[in-house]
Specification:
There is one protein chain. The protein has a domain of 57 residues. The chain contains 3 helices and no strands. The chain is mainly alpha-helical and 82 residues long.
Length: 82
Amino acid sequence: MGREQEYSVRSGLVLARVREIRKDSHRMGTLKLRSILAKEMGSAMTGLGRDAFFRLLRENDLLVKCKRRYAITTQSDHRFKK
């Protein structure tokens, strides 16, 4: 089996497990996911470092989207309103 086939099989296993974990806790971050998978899968995670794991999740649209925070700076409901 070639390197590319081995990578695709390994990444397929990792992605399947990530989807299973995200069913229960959909806002879990990538670093925490990686540490859980490293404990569970051991040999399947060797050679898949932090940056490669981020890239794999980004390519498959599995990164957690940041919640946008709004700063409300204007109080338009005050007595000096024209």
